Amino acid sequence: MGQLYTLVNAVFEVYIFLIFIRCILSWIPMGRNAVTRFIIEMTEPYLGIFRNLLSRYYASPVDFSPMLALLSLYLIRRLVMGLLLALI
Q1: How many CB atoms lie within 10 A of CB 72?
Q2: Contact present, 70 and 16 (Cβ < 8 Å)
Q3: Residue 7 — φ and ψ, nearest 5°?
Q4: What's the rounded Cα separation, in Å, for the pair 30 and 28?
Q5: Which residues contact 43 (CB under 8 A, 6 or more apart)?
Q6: How many Å is the maximal CA-CA distance in the chain?
Q7: How far apart are the first and last CA of the chain?
Q8: Rounded distance between C-alpha atoms, residue 77 and residue 69, angstroms
């Protein structure tokens, strides 16, 4: 069961890292190579949820969806990891 905990935690860490990289890539003018396409395709489904939610209620030139997505991801991670610890 400890291996499952480690695996789930690693998946959360990788996804959080991908969202951070996506934010940094948005500041740097780069072409769309395979790596950036991969990062965008992996993070857009999750970030799109928050982008759509924010666009309905809050109009701003600054995209706050990564911050909201990371906050909710940390909360989900904490909940899931707590449940896994309770099962061990």
Answers
A1: 13
A2: yes
A3: -65, -45
A4: 6
A5: 15, 18, 19, 22
A6: 46
A7: 6
A8: 12
* Number of helical H runs and strand E runs in the chain: 3, 0
Q: Is the CB of residue 51 less than 8 Å from the CB of residue 45?
A: no
Note whether 42 and 18 are within 8 A (CB).
Answer: yes
How far is Cα 19 from Cα 30, in angstroms, rounded to an integer? 17
Nearest residue to 70 (alpha-carbon basis) of 7, 27, 18: 18
Looking at residue 61, what DSSP letter applies? S
DSSP 62: S
pLDDT greater than 80 at residue 1: no
- Each domain of the chain, given as residue ranges in start order, spans 2-87
Over the stretch 24-82, which tens digit does the pLDDT of each residue have? 988 887 777 899 999 999 999 999 999 998 888 877 788 889 999 999 999 999 999 99
How many whole angstroms separate alpha carbon 5 and alpha carbon 28?
Answer: 35
Query: How many Cβ atoms sit within 10 Å of the Cβ of residue 48?
Result: 12
